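Schema walk-through. Below, the input block comes first and the output block second. Nothing else is stored per chain. Lengths vary across the set, and this one has 579 residues.
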Amino acid sequence: MKEFRFSSVGKGDADESSFLITTLEAVIEHIQSGALTGSPDPESYYYESNLTEENVNGRQRKNSLTESISTSDTNGKEETLEYIFELIKANHCEQVKAILQKNQKHLQSINLNENNVLKIALDNNLTDDDDDSDTEIYHKLCHPLCNCKKCCCKISKNLLKTSPTVTSRDSHGLTALHVASIHGKANVVESLIEMGAEVNATDLNECTPLHYASSRGHQNALLLLLHSGANIDKANIDQNTPLHMAVNNGHLNCVKALIYFAEHSRRKIRINCVNESGNTPLHMASKWGYEGIARLLIENGAEPSLQNKYNKTAFDYAHNLKIMQVLKSCTPSLYEYIHITSTDVKALNCKSDNPVAPIKLKVVNKVSDTNNVSKAVEKLKLIDRILKAISYGDVKLACFYMNINYSAYVDMKDKPDTPEQTTPCHPLCECAICKKNNETNSSDFDINFTDINGFTALHYASRYGLVELCKILIHNKADVNCYNKKYQTPLHLAALNNKIYVIRLLLDSGANINAIDVAGNTPLHDVCAMGNIGAAKMLLSYNPDLSLQNGSDKTALTLAKEKVHLTIIDLIDKYSSGL
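--- output ---
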């Protein structure tokens, strides 16, 4: 503006150009000052509360500069919702409270006069069809510097939308109370609640402030929300309750606060509530190994036998013995339903078709089912340890887990395992050989027990070529033709990994040389595909069926030709010509 002078005398149209440039600069500065979306500094529009009939009719405004100075401190450019959130994170409680209270008072006065302003606008046919659209406010004005009554009305209404209050939300749906709960600012939470913040407000994920306080472990903020009427069982978009969130993140203090508050306030909390996956809080505690939380949940009625959508119980997710012991210590809920002894039945004078008996039978059945589940889980964990020991080549440790006396098999290293050795002379024979066989067969472990993929100990021993362990397992009546989920037998795995001595042992023990897996492949198919020459020689010496085709209608010879395994092709040709 200092470059432009009305009285200057210049050549040509210099003054006109300066005027246009200066006007453009003034417009840009005016837009950047925030006058279009809020009160500028030092220039200011009136709040809607100051829009009287005189102002709307175009009369001159009074004391605009004075009022702009008084309002700019409250609704300035820096006082956005993001700025309020930053103050909350920094725990500036008094500053947050002062700003929000001032904004609340201004907005209340705007609301009181809103009806009068709208009535005046309607009387003067000031319609605004796009007032509720998402278009920027300066796109709705006649021009950036317009002060007509229609534009003043629009700007005043925009102030109502942009002034941060306790109910304002950001693009994620978060309110000031959400942010205070996330960062655990208990004094800010208390102030916001006193100012009328909605304790059950939800964001885009349908999470309430209580969800965030629970998931972050802020017990003080959580208790303030609960005492202010927060919904203790509110579920978010994933159907997780605050209890789910506290358990999943291992916050024992918040779990205690939720449960004990519900107990003392006589409010019901669903201990066995399920989320979108069907998991209860106990599922999560069991999965992550939170022993203290699991014990607390069980003491307050959590049921470990409940299944999720994948048919898994808390027992299935338990990965250590301490959690398993906690779950096993639980008394089933049906025990709490009824306790009837024989004397109680006589005192009841029940009819002949006593309904107590079926109830007791159901209790017994449920207990037996729970015991069976726990035993199955223990066996699965044991077989996992056994298979891991076998994969490390530790035969002694594997035998220890299977309760097999390894020392009794020391002298079996160079002896083939034949049925005659394991068959007793007669059932009551006490000779040295039969007595030794009885010692070696004393294991109470189910040798043919499988893991979740159907693998047995013999599968792994064959895969890693542990001949000694294979002999021990076969001696303990392991099934040489057992198969996993892919219908692979131990012979398939030995052939795939070129374990020649294991192949011979399995075939001598009755393994089916023509067994097929889920793809229709025999062990010879696998050998030809892998190019295992030694395994091919061993299998061919036991007269396999060369005409068998797999699921792709290919014989073993066809696979060898496709892979160009010339030695194996030559072996099969010689075997065929020998037939």
